[in-house]
Write a structure and sequence with these properties.
The chain has 451 residues and is mainly β. The protein has six domains: 39 residues, no CATH class; 69 residues, Immunoglobulin-like (Sandwich), CATH 2.60.40; 69 residues, Sandwich (Immunoglobulin-like), CATH 2.60.40; 70 residues, Immunoglobulin-like (Sandwich), CATH 2.60.40; 77 residues, Sandwich (Immunoglobulin-like); 86 residues, Immunoglobulin-like (Sandwich). 0% of the residues lie in helices and 49% in strands. It contains no helices and 38 strands. The protein has a five-stranded mixed sheet with strand order 31-38-37-33-34, with no helix packed on it. The protein has a three-stranded antiparallel sheet with strand order 1-2-3, with no helix packed on it. A hairpin with a 5-residue loop joins strand 19 and strand 20. The protein is rod-shaped and about 225 Å long. It starts with 10 loop residues before the first strand and ends with a strand.
């Protein structure tokens, strides 16, 4: 207050017991003051302080964010009380009455009226949880099929949901799919969306490399299959369609037509058919021969049935044969002999047996006369024999004197002795002979030399 008149200084006596000239920080109400000057002259004054009808207040309407992470939230503020106009200061530095286009979170606003009176208001803008989408692929089993399924699982956001697949399907799940990439967009009630893709990839086809090995010989069950299977899923099992052999058994296979089924861990299968072939039956037959005479030669001949490839022969025993590894061979034996011939055709064996019979009667002929007169007929005396291994023969005159000796059956006596022509007469021939069959004979007889 400002005193005027009288004689200063002044003293003051307020109804609230204050003695200062001025009062501050007062509530509304009536205040009386008695002012006294230096001359004790007084004056009084009554002052009434008023206040606004109501304190500063505010109501707010919160608009939550529609989609997780969105920025479309807002707070609409309506101030009241106090003394307008008002000013505003938000915690995000906004100075407008309302805030819009903001993220979810907590916000504080300080409202100040024209009198400087303030009000602090706290509000929170909420948001839904994020839409969670997972895709699960099932039914991916065999290459080339179109039976895969993709199942979706959705949570969060604001139910309910709508679905839109890249193949235009609007179901939560899609079925009967082949290889490819499929995407799904899920939209919730607030039109918030999430999109996810998944790839349907079927396993590779079951493949195989196979080498079929035929039976090595006629009648053998030694065919086998060399199999390298690959692709598919997991382990591959090979089973015989006809149940002829255990699974995954590929050896000791008899000739025939077979189908192998290859199955992986998903039950996917493929098959192939093949033949195990057996070669012709290898055979050999030795043609029989006539009975041999000692010292004569014959031929053992064979007829054979073979398959392409290597062919070899083996005769046993080899004694008496000109060739023990030929299909045919000359034979000269001196006693009955059993021969076995073996034919080897690519490791397949065939045998035959033949007996060679020998006539053991010895052929020996000693003439009883000859005429060495130079007429070209019977001029030389020979000893005739077959199957001779060794011979010694001599001619003696009637006095026992040797006139000729030979160890060669092909050398004969011409009726001379030391180059001298002997007269006609009776001579004695002595023959010792060893035959090829290891027997021996000795013969002597008279011969007549004629002129």
């Amino acid at each position: 207050m400002i005193p005027d008149g009288g004689t200063a200084p002044y003293t003051f006596a307020w109804s609230n017991a204050a003695v200062t000239e001025d009062l501050a920080n007062l509530a509304a109400g009536q205040f009386d003051v008695l002012v006294t000057d230096a001359n004790s002259c007084t004056a009084s004054l009554s002052v009434t302080l008023t206040e606004p009808a109501a304190a500063v207040s505010a109501t707010s309407v919160v608009t939550d964010v529609n989609c997780f992470g969105g920025s479309d939230g807002g707070i609409e503020l309506t101030p009241a009380g106090g003394t307008s106009p008002y000013t505003f200061l938000w915690s995000n530095a906004a100075v407008t009455e309302d805030i819009t286009g903001v993220l979810a979170g907590s916000y504080t606003v300080t409202i100040t009226d024209d009198n400087g009176c303030t009000l602090v208001v706290d509000d929170s803008i909420a948001q839904p949880t994020a839409i969670e989408l997972s895709l699960d692929v099932t039914g991916v089993d065999c290459f080339g099929n179109s039976d895969a399924n993709v199942n979706s699982a959705v949570s969060g956001g604001t139910p309910t949901y709508t679905y839109l697949w890249s193949d235009s399907s609007t179901n939560a799940n899609i079925v009967g799919l082949g290889d490819g990439t499929y995407s799904l967009t899920v939209t919730d009630q607030n039109q918030c969306t999430v999109t996810q893709s998944v790839t349907v990839a079927f396993p590779p086809p079951i493949g195989f490399d196979v080498a079929v090995n035929d039976a090595s010989c006629f009648g053998l069950e030694d065919g086998f299959v060399q199999l390298d299977a690959f692709g598919g899923t997991g382990d591959i099992t090979a089973t015989w369609a006809g149940g002829e052999y255990p699974a995954n058994n590929f050896s000791g296979i008899a000739p025939g037509n077979y189908t192998l089924i290859l199955t992986d861990d998903n039950g996917c299968d493929t098959s192939f058919t093949f033949d195990i072939v057996e070669p012709l039956a290898t055979s050999i037959d030795v043609l029989p021969i006539d009975t041999l005479r000692i010292g004569l030669v014959d031929t053992l001949e064979t007829t054979v049935v073979t398959n392409p490839g290597s062919v070899s022969y083996f005769w046993e025993p080899s004694e008496g044969l000109s060739c023990d590894n030929c299909p045919s061979t000359e034979v000269e034996v001196y006693w009955d002999t059993r021969y076995i011939v073996t034919l080897d055709n690519n490791g397949c064996l065939a045998t035959d047996t033949v007996w060679v019979y020998v006539n053991s009667d010895h052929i020996l002929y000693i003439p009883n006369a000859f005429s060495p007169n130079g007429d070209g007929r019977n001029d030389v005396l020979y000893v005739y024999a077959e199957g001779v291994k060794r011979i010694v023969w001599s001619v003696f005159d009637r006095w026992g004197e040797s006139v000729f000796t030979s160890t060669d059956i092909n050398t004969g006596w011409d009726g001379t002795m030391k180059g001298k022509i002997l007269p006609p007469g009776v001579f004695v021939i002595d023959v010792y002979i060893e035959f090829l069959d290891l027997t021996s004979e000795r013969h002597n007889q008279s011969i007549l030399l004629l002129r």
